[in-house]
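Hi everyone, sorry if this is the wrong subforum. Our group has a chain we'd like a structural model of before ordering constructs, and none of us has done structure prediction before. Sequence below.
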Amino acid sequence: MQYVDDPNDLSKYFDLAQLKLPDAVFKRRVAKEAILPIFGVSLELGVKRRPPTESGTPVVVEKCLESLKEKGMKTEGLFRVSATVKQINLLKKSFDKGEDVDFNLIDDPHVISCVLKQYLRDLPEPLIPFNQYSNFLGIQGLRKCYFFILQNC
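Answer:
Right subforum, don't worry. Here is the predicted structure as tokens:
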């Protein structure tokens, strides 16, 4: 599946004359101040909308992990305990608007872990794609096999 932000980008994938769409559709432009969300879209589209960090990681993931390393490593139930939906949604909207989110203003690390969990949950396809899932499980089996061999050497 391929997402486009501008209807004119469809020309990369289709002959626009064959689509028979009204002219008004192609005159529409995405306003610069329009909100182009990064939550709920593919990783590919998300990093097009908000360039990834130097490591190639989506901004949301990098910021959450950095902040959790600083203030959440000794927090019990970090990914189990929930935060308020209001706080999560405010941060989510800030990321979607392209704002520079400052987690130093957040005291509760559970809020940050919930934002990260929500980002990963909202991905249309999981981090391990459906078509690679069986390969991933196969790797787990190989790991057990190697561990058995190493123990018996």
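For your construct planning: The radius of gyration is 21 Å. Helices lie at 16-19, 23-27, 43-49, 59-71, 85-97, 109-122, 133-151.
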